[in-house]
Write a structure and sequence with these properties.
Structural class: alpha/beta
Helix content: 40-55%
Oligomer: single chain
Strand content: 5-15%
Mean pLDDT: 94
Largest sheet: 6 strands, parallel
CATH superfamily of the largest domain: Dehydroquinate synthase-like - alpha domain
């Protein structure tokens, strides 16, 4: 049997002040000519800090481009302008820039360095790029970054809802792995035990210190990064994404005002935990401790949209096993929306 080849990050820096040392890290690994792809609207002090760090390390920025739209078409247009002599592509900022940079680097056959400035989801270190293709959201194959550089001080100063979004995306691993095991028993879908264990462990690692402070940034950043590696190990999104993500994707399609990915996923995770009778108190209390529930209650979701999203969710990936394919399961989720005490005041 052929053993699949996987790629893993070789450069990892998760600590305060790492942004200012990015040039040093790249120079140590022999990179002197870079392409820098930056989130549109990123605070000037952040990207100028990075540019200064690169210049001080005598690294040449061959192209600096702001990424405004995360589409495959925009990525291909950008690919055509990547200088042939560039050695590495650096993505700086939020999800759009990182997804585009990852995909462009994959197509160009060049190493990619992920430099997220917030911790809103696990996409910065996943083997996929979430891009729109012909107007539809697609998960396009890519490669894990060669390097991940996270300045925890910069992440701490990002808006708090982005951190809560990261918490919501992380806690989803508990219900995703549970559903993966159900898929094995129902359909014989193979499970990679290492990927499942790694994904589960990341949540419990964060549970040890779920704090919104400089020390609390590292456990969340590390946990989200390791979830990307779990996906790479097994060759699918199963250890990180289940029906809770399908509900969020459905909301993205039908909601008049979709929220941050992780806020939708975190809420859907709690619902799936109720359905699975799996880690309900662990998930509910973590969302309470971190202020997740308070954030949602300050800006409630629309109940009718969630009902519609639950019905739509199983069709998002028709060939993907989902517990929501069962009509009775969907009816139970609908009931939880109204009866669960933790969800009180989370909907209008």
């Amino acid at each position: 049997m052929l053993v699949p080849t996987i790629s893993l990050p070789a450069l990892l820096r998760i600590k305060p002040g790492s942004l200012g040392r990015l040039g040093i890290y790249l120079k140590r690994d022999g990179y002197q000519r870079v392409v820098l792809l930056v989130s549109h609207g990123l605070i000037e002090s952040i990207w100028s800090h990075v540019e200064r760090a690169l210049v001080e390390a005598e690294i040449t920025i061959l192209l600096r481009e702001e990424v405004e739209t995360a589409t495959a078409e925009a990525a291909l247009e950008l690919l055509a302008r990547i200088p042939g002599e560039s050695q590495v592509i650096v993505g700086l900022g939020g999800g759009k820039a990182l997804d585009v940079a990852k995909f462009v680097a994959f197509l160009a056959g060049k190493p990619y360095i992920a430099v997220p400035t917030s911790l809103s989801n696990d996409g910065f270190c996943s083997p996929q790029s979430s891009l729109k293709l012909a107007g539809k959201r697609k998960s396009l194959g890519a490669r894990l970054p060669y390097g991940v550089v996270i300045d925890t001080e910069v992440c701490l100063h990002a808006p708090r809802p982005l951190w809560l979004s990261g918490v919501g995306d992380l806690v989803a691993k508990l219900t995703a792995v549970f559903e993966w095991r159900v898929a094995f028993h129902v359909r014989g879908e193979p499970i990679n035990d290492l990927a499942a264990l790694l994904s589960d462990s990341t949540v419990h690692q964060f549970l040890a210190r779920p704090a919104y402070d400089i020390e609390g940034m590292k456990p969340l950043a590390t946990a989200l990064m390791l979830n990307g590696i779990a996906m790479e190990i097994c060759g699918s999104s199963r250890p990180a994404s289940g029906s809770e993500h399908l509900i969020s994707h459905a909301l993205d399609q039908i909601s008049e005002r979709p929220r941050l990915h992780g806020l939708q996923v975190g809420m859907a995770t709690y619902l799936m935990a109720r359905l699975q009778e799996n880690n309900v108190e662990v998930i509910g209390e973590l969302l309470e401790t971190t202020g997740f529930w308070e954030e949602i209650r300050c800006d409630p979701f629309v109940l009718t949209e969630w009902r519609a999203a639950i019905e739509l969710a199983p069709g998002i990936k028709p060939h993907y096993f989902s517990m929501l394919a069962d009509a009775e399961a969907r009816e139970r989720l609908m009931a939880f929306l109204l009866s669960d005490v933790r969800l009180r005041n989370c909907f209008v």
